[in-house]
Amino acid sequence: MLSRSLRRAATGGAAAVLLVALAACSGSGSSDGRLSVVTGFYPLQFVTERIGGAHVKVTNLAAPGAEPHDIELKPSQVGAISNAALVIRFKGVQPQLDDAVGQNAAGHDLDVSTVTPPATGPNHRGATEDAGAPDPHVWLDPTRLAAIAGDVSGRLAKLDPDHAADYANNTDALLQELTKLDGEFAAGLKQCRRHEIVTSHAAFGYLADRYGLTQLALSGLSPDTEPTPQQLATVAAEARQAGATTIFFETLVSPKVAETLATEVGAKTAVLDPLEGLTEGGTGDYLSVMRTNLEALRTALGCS
Known about the structure:
Number of strands: 9
CATH architecture of the largest domain: 3-Layer(aba) Sandwich
Oligomer: single chain
Largest sheet: 5 strands, parallel
Strand content: 5-15%
Strand order of the largest sheet: 5-7-6-8-9
Shape: globular
Low-confidence stretches: 1-26
């Protein structure tokens, strides 16, 4: 049974030329009659597709296998932003998208950072270069993704009231799945020998907070930042003290730093997916990848 609160929660010259040409024809639908929605990266795509169903055409700006933070928008993507009925983004994650929305999509965007505001470096030990910076990885807590789903549903229904009942039904189904996932994580991580997760970068603070874990991160919020030798030594010492058997790395960045730490500590490496994007050619969706994450965590932490 879903709670009432969860239901309620629930660019360069060429681009500029293209935008001038498109400004007069900014629309709300795709050529096949579906509502046209642009999303910044995968978790927003997942939510929108699950809620919109057959009534929505979703264009995701971050390609599979590509790191979404530093996307460089193509003219065609800027045109899609200009023509979309709705652009769904997380302000601050993709600066070029923020700029494009400000110039060409003001008034028809949804900034999900206003739905579940980012905390300042939640549950973040180890690296210090991003201390005090807001952490955008809210989708790794299923209850926060549920809140985002609620606002996406409301905006789609407002734009397309003829299909509002379908959007509401799809939202209820998604919220039930997210509630089930949250319960699986809570039960699966309740009784573990260890509670520290050692990660290559500090993407998992919300997940750690939700399920009573502590995150030890080699680098800060940016996956591209290389840890200093001092940071490596500090995290290695804490990982040994915690009895860590696993150092986690991510799907879209090099595992070399995690492998170096694992060698130093005498641990193995494993993948913990921050779900910023799916791997190229990969299968599954948010729910299945999160369940894979849960099994990786249970193994690493010695959970019963």
